């Protein structure tokens, strides 16, 4: 009976793995080698991938800068409207991302309040790198904040009490106790945030169609020329993402081993 139950679990697990793996395998082994070689020398494709990675890193870095303090306030401080603020933070992952793009355009567009304000300093968001970063950050920062919150909540409060009893102020406790003890969750949230950022399409196509990030270029090549012209871009993105996440998983595993010691 136990073996039968395990066989059911194993079958369902294999179906789940196949559902994820087969499209990836199909892209890797179903893209002609000649078109992959051509893609390597296609300046538009290479520039698009570099732009995507760069914008993803920038959006994640800014997300860390403003998201970690926000997560800290939510977990360690009591104030009115906390549940409402947490609900607002979750909205970007719930609404359609084309709707997110419209919302961002309303605020950061040439007629939006923030768009007008930043234009004074020569900063525009429509059709610029800044717009891409804003679009990526809006749809991805939720993952970082929620992961950091889980890390902060898992900390034994006795460590914080001991640090304060030894004379550490709130700033010192935050950087020397809270951040190190929740680093694993912050790193995990950072990875998820960056992954979500570089895959964004809906918000960016509304706010900053040009310069084209990889997801937008895939869409344009597919709608203009067909499947065979879009597959090499997907192949390169898939390989880069696979290598990147393998490295991050190895580094994350090493960090876990280090923290145990």
UniProtKB/TrEMBL annotation:
Protein name: Molybdenum ABC transporter permease
Record SUPFAM superfamilies: MetI-like
Family annotation (PANTHER family): MOLYBDENUM TRANSPORT SYSTEM PERMEASE PROTEIN MODB
Keywords: Cell membrane, Membrane, Transmembrane, Transmembrane helix, Transport
Origin organism lineage: Bacteria, Bacteria division TA06
Subcellular location: Cell membrane
Keyword hit for Nucleus: no
Membrane topology: Multi-pass membrane protein
UniProt cross-references to InterPro entries, sorted A to Z: MetI-like (IPR000515), MetI-like_sf (IPR035906)
């Amino acid at each position: 009976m136990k073996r039968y139950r395990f066989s059911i679990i194993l079958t369902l697990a294999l179906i789940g793995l196949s559902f994820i793996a087969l499209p990836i395998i199909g892209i890797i082994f179903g893209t002609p080698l000649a078109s992959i070689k051509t893609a390597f020398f296609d300046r538009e494709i290479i520039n698009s991938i570099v732009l995507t990675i760069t914008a993803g890193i920038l959006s994640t870095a800014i997300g860390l800068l403003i998201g970690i303090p926000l997560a800290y306030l939510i977990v360690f401080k009591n104030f009115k409207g906390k549940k409402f603020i947490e609900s607002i933070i979750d909205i970007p992952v719930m609404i359609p991302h084309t709707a997110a793009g419209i919302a961002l355009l309303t605020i950061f567009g040439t007629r939006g309040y923030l768009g007008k304000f930043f234009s004074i300093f020569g900063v525009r968001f429509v059709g610029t790198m800044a717009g891409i970063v804003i679009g990526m950050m809006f749809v991805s920062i939720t993952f970082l904040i929620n992961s950091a919150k889980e890390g902060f909540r898992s900390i034994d409060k006795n460590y914080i009490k001991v640090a304060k009893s030894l004379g550490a102020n709130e700033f010192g406790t935050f950087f020397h106790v809270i951040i190190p003890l929740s680093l694993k969750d912050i790193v995990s949230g950072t990875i998820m945030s960056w992954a979500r950022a570089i895959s964004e399409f809906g918000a960016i196509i509304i706010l900053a169609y040009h310069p084209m990030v990889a997801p937008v270029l895939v869409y344009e090549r597919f709608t203009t020329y067909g499947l065979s012209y879009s597959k090499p871009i997907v192949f390169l993105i898939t390989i880069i993402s696979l290598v990147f996440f393998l490295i991050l998983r190895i580094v994350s595993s090493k960090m876990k081993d280090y923290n145990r010691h």
